[in-house]
Each structure stands twice: as C-alpha cells, then as structure tokens.
Amino acid sequence: MPREARVWAENLSWNERRYLLSICYLMSGSSPEAQARFLDEYTADGLVSRMLADSDTLDKVRTYLQNLQVTTPLAETVLRDYIRQFYIHSAQDVRVQPEIYLESALRLVGKSEERYDVFNYILGFEVLKIIFQMSWLEQERLYRVQKNQEEFFHSYIKPIQYTHKVNGIIVPKNEKMFFARRDYYIQKPELTPRKTLELIMATFTTKVVINLGFSLIRNTRFLVFDYDYIYNAEPEEIFPNG
Question: What's residue 242's pLDDT?
Fold first, then answer.
C-alpha cells in the first residue's frame, strides 16, 4: 500500500474504517462486470478530467488525427470509452478475467506515465482503424511510401491482411493470376465500427498499439501518409505481398 494511502487510512474514524472495509470486501467478492461498473462510476470521471487537463498532449493527439482526416472528437465521452476499452484490451492480452480493471485504474490514477499510455493507445488505435478499413491495394500504397517498408509491412499490414483472410472479409482467389488478384486487391472491407474494434483488439496487443501511438507522437514523420496517392481511384499495377 502506498504510504499516503496508509496514513490516510490510519487517520479515519472507526465508522469510516468500517465503510472502507465493507467496500473492500464487496469488491473482492464481486464479479468482473461489477468491478467494471465500479470503475466507471467512481474513477473514470477523475481519469478523464486529468486527461482533459493535459492540454499539450491532448492537442498533439488531436492535431495528428486531424492531419490524417480522422473525425473522432476527443471529447469526454470518447476518452471515457477509450479508458474502458484500454482495460478490456489489457485484460484480453494477458488472458485473465477483467479483475485487472481496478489494478489498471490505480496505476492510471497514480502515475502520469500510465495516462500517457492511454493517449498513445488512442492515437495508435485510430491509425489502425484507418488501415483496417483500407483495401489491400490502399494498404500496399501506404507501406510503399514508408521509410522502413519491410518493418511497417510485417508489423501492421501483414497481420491486418491475415485477419481479413481468416475472417472472410477479403478472400483471395487464384492469387497467382493477375486479374484475379486485381479484383480482391481493390475490394474495400465491409466492416461495422464495432467489428473493426473487435478485430483490432484480437489482432494487436495493447503494447503494439501503444508503441505505434508513442512513435507517432514522438516523431511526426514516423508515418508517411500521402492521402491522394493512397486513395487514388485508379487501380495501378498490383504486387503480391509475399
């Protein structure tokens, strides 16, 4: 227990200590869903307030999203949803029940570095949403303009295309035939916002998402995004990924 928390608890009156012990007992025996509701009701508001107060980081994320023509407003409701999603994704990564909600909340409240992780997570996730909803041809164009094409392809494009395939979103047929490849390369994925979210969480760990966002904030040139070239309606020569 942090020293500040210990001092605070020791200075509580007997009745107040009873209330604290009752809360601890109830939370330890409650379901993950109940713990998540407790988080939303008693901690998320404070976390969102701290994130909104960090105007410098918030402005950096907003500016980057605007440059990518992302219209997601980083309002209070969006930040709150992302905080909850961050916990769920973290729990999913380590294959445990969502008891990690409260542990994550305590870390976020206590350490500014953890709050930066949420900002990085938001930015990285929004970029992955863009890539997930591109056709394979658009994804090819995106990775071709990157400085480190091979790393970018294997880190982001290849996992996304694999997820497209195994979920029947893009189904390659006759891959060795040029005109067949042309057909499925220009096909746009048909994904609802909810399905996109679920697939990204299943494809990438929180660490990958956070690291992507961190790289974007640290270096504005990390991602080259030539909108006109990527979304050019004219299908050009189509290369296989290999």
Answer: 45
Contact yes or no for 141/239 (Cβ under 8 A): no
Separation between Cα atoms, residue 207 and residue 16, nearest integer Å: 39
Residue 3: count of CB within 10 angstroms of its CB: 7
Question: What is the residue-wise DSSP string for the chain?
Answer: --HHHHHHHHTS-HHHHHHHHHHHHHHHTS-HHHHHHHHHHHTHHHHHHHHHH-HHHHHHHHHHHHHTT------HHHHHHHHHHHHHHHHHHTT--TTHHHHHHHHHHH-HHHHHHHHHHHHHHHHHHHHHTS-HHHHHHHHHTSSSHHHHIIIIIHHHHHHHHHTTSS---STTSHHHHHHHHSPPP---HHHHHHHHHHHS-HHHHHHHHHHHHH-TTSS---HHHHT-SS--------
Q: What is the pTM of this model?
A: 0.79
Encode pLDDT of 110-123 as tens digits.
Answer: 555 667 888 999 99
Backbone angles phi, psi at 36, to 5 degrees: -65, -40
Beta carbons within 8 Å of 67's beta carbon, 6+ residues apart? 225
